[in-house]
Design goal:
Layout: E1 4-8, H1 16-25, E2 34-37, H2 51-70, E3 75-78, H3 83-88, H4 96-103, E4 110-114, E5 119-122, H5 132-135, H6 138-154, E6 161-165, H7 180-195, E7 200-205, H8 207-215, E8 221-224, H9 227-238, E9 243-247, E10 253-256, H10 273-287
Parallel strand pairs: 1-2, 1-3, 3-10, 5-8, 6-7, 6-8
Antiparallel strand pairs: 4-5, 4-9, 9-10
Helix pairs in contact: 1-10, 6-7, 8-9
């Protein structure tokens, strides 16, 4: 049977409806799936956030999570939302990642960004650079590394090659620039290789080279120790195809890696490439459940 891919329109005062419509009309949309709107399309002024569009966006996220949990859809692609107005109408989660994990009853989850050339998992997410060394630990890196491994399998990669990027320049120069790479990241690499002999985990990899190597096809994914180290290279090489994936869910949840873009909403200028890639990846992952 063909997988059923659900989708939401996000905050409909933004570009969500436009990028969804363009992606669904693309000749590159996979034909071996069916697509179903979750929620409803509304008529609302475009170009600025408001509480009415936020209420609909929140309600449609609840519907999407319920259907994903029940299995009436095989994956969900969620269009961009405005967190500021969502929080004003009762959305209490930091983002959609945490929302879907809680609604699906999942505690073992992580954020992943993936594009045409790079796939990046994050060891820490929204936190200060100063706090990163204290937040990094071997067990957490192993946990996220295993989620990245599962993601690669769902993409159809049978023997993934995953690099764990070092925290410090030059991977710490054997401790000269800090001990985190020796004491935290290297043991995680060893543990992952011990647990998963049919995959290859490398590192601590020199951070100013590993993303180029991955973009050139030498790695299937990179686990970054902190947000910007991983997402700056990803958005340089994959800005228009980058997709946000919530790792750890039984059924995939994906979204384009851009915001509501209120400034261009309703003007026909929004690029649907990231949304189209989200649909393509949703079908691919749903087919490898």
């Amino acid at each position: 049977m063909q997988p059923v891919i659900g989708y939401t329109l996000g905050d409909q005062a933004g570009v969500g409806p436009e990028v969804i419509e363009k992606a669904l009309a693309s000749p590159l949309l996979p034909k071996n799936a069916s697509y179903r709107l979750i929620g409803q399309k509304i008529t609302i002024p475009q170009g600025s956030p408001n509480l009415e569009s936020a209420k609909y966006a929140f309600d449609h996220l609840e519907q999407a999570a319920a259907e994903l949990k029940a299995g009436t859809i095989d994956a969900i692609v969620t269009a961009p939302v405005c967190k500021e107005t969502l929080h004003e109408v009762g959305f209490t989660w930091p983002g959609q990642t945490e929302f879907f994990a809680e609604r699906m009853g999942v505690s073992n989850y992580a954020m992943c960004l993936t594009g045409a050339h790079l796939t990046v998992g994050l060891g820490t997410i929204h936190t200060s650079i100063k706090s990163v060394p204290d937040l990094l630990n071997t067990a957490e890196l192993v946990r996220i590394g295993e989620l990245l491994l599962d993601f690669c399998h769902r993409k159809g990669i049978s023997a993934p090659r995953i690099a764990l990027a070092a925290l410090n320049p030059h991977a710490g120069e054997h401790g000269a620039f800090g001990k985190e790479d020796i004491e935290i990241i290297a043991p995680a690499v060893a543990e992952l290789n011990n647990r998963h002999p049919h995959a290859t985990f490398s590192g601590p990899a020199v951070p100013d080279c590993v993303y180029r190597d991955a973009a050139e096809g030498h790695f299937d994914a990179v686990l970054a120790p902190y947000h910007d180290q991983g997402l700056i290279p990803l958005k340089i090489v994959d800005f228009h195809t980058a997709v946000n994936v919530t790792l750890g869910l039984k059924r995939p949840r994906l979204s384009p890696d851009h915001g509501t873009a209120f400034a261009i909403a309703g003007k026909g200028l929004a690029n649907p490439s990231s949304t189209l890639h989200a649909f393509q990846l949703a079908v691919q992952m749903a087919s490898h459940q």
